[in-house]
Design a protein that fits this description.
This protein is of the alpha/beta class. Helix content is 35%, strand content 20%. It contains eight helices and ten strands. It has helices spanning 26-29, 34-37, 49-62, 82-86, 139-145, 158-171, 188-203, 211-225, and strands spanning 2-3, 10-11, 17-22, 65-71, 97-98, 101-102, 124-128, 150-156, 175-184, 207-209. It has a six-stranded parallel beta sheet, sandwiched between helices. Strands 1-2 form a two-stranded antiparallel ribbon. Strands 5-6 form a two-stranded antiparallel sheet. A hairpin with a 2-residue loop joins strand 5 and strand 6 (101-102). The structure holds tricarbonodiimidic diamide. The site of tricarbonodiimidic diamide has 10 residues, from helix 6.
Length: 226
């Protein structure tokens, strides 16, 4: 499949591609989670949910591999470096009790992926202690086992966990595409700058495209099955 993208068309085939959904968990999308404790207006992020749902549904329908990530720490915080926990002056720190359970701790209500995008059986779910999806997770080995060379990214936040993950993927040899209307930041100008820098210099990190381009391509695949 060849889809219109920036800085030039992006080519991928379903058998060697994965849809990677970064940290669409309540901690970042809903009030009372990690995003809000950092002082952010979390209402901005939920706007992308319908577009993410549409891509996820089409990707599942085409039989593509799906990877979900969550920024999550073990309950004993043994995988949370003190530098990460102590940084800044948040209202609540990682591991503290909040209205959705302990902040950014695996298994807590706030750490669950929002219901609209909840994983289904057979999909890969990665708990990641860092901002990047490849750091201390084994994700690269899992993708290699599945023969994956191309990654299509959605999720939050654009300039933090999404961009870090795309840069990690780039250095590991993946061709990565970010779906422009399926990612968001608490700072709209950071989102715009991130899209620009990812695709600058001839796609130094990867490509960007609107979700409609992927939906059209997947629709033509579905049509071939009829
Ligand atoms: N603070 C912020 O913008 N993001 C994060 O802390 N994590 C993710 O991006 N998932």
């Amino acid at each position: 499949m060849l889809i219109p993208a920036q800085p030039f068309p992006y080519e991928f085939d379903l058998a060697h591609s994965a849809l990677v959904i970064i940290d669409m968990q309540r901690d970042f999308i809903e009030p009372g989670g990690f995003g809000e404790t950092l002082g952010n207006d979390v209402s901005l992020l939920s706007a992308i949910v319908p577009a993410c749902q549409a891509v996820l549904q089409a990707w599942r329908g085409a039989g593509g591999l799906v990877v979900h990530t969550r920024e999550a720490h073990r309950p004993d915080l043994s995988d949370c470096p003190p530098a990460k926990r102590l940084r800044g002056n948040p209202a609540l720190r990682i591991g503290d009790q909040g209205p959705m359970g302990r902040i950014l701790v695996a298994g807590e209500p706030g750490n669950q992926i929002i219901p609209e995008l909840a994983p289904v059986d057979g999909e890969i779910v990665i708990d990641k202690p860092g901002k990047g999806a490849f750091c201390a997770t084994g994700l690269h080995e899992i993708l290699q086992d599945h023969g994956i060379s191309h990654l299509l990214f959605m999720g939050v936040t654009t300039e933090v966990c999404v961009q870090t993950s795309m840069r990690e993927a780039n250095d590991r040899g993946y061709d990565s595409l970010l779906l422009e209307d399926c990612t968001e930041s608490y700072f709209p100008h950071f989102k715009a700058a991130t899209l620009d820098m990812l695709r600058a210099q001839g796609g130094i990190v990867g490509w960007t495209a609107p979700s409609a381009a992927v939906l059209t391509a997947l629709g033509s695949v579905a049509g071939q099955h009829c």
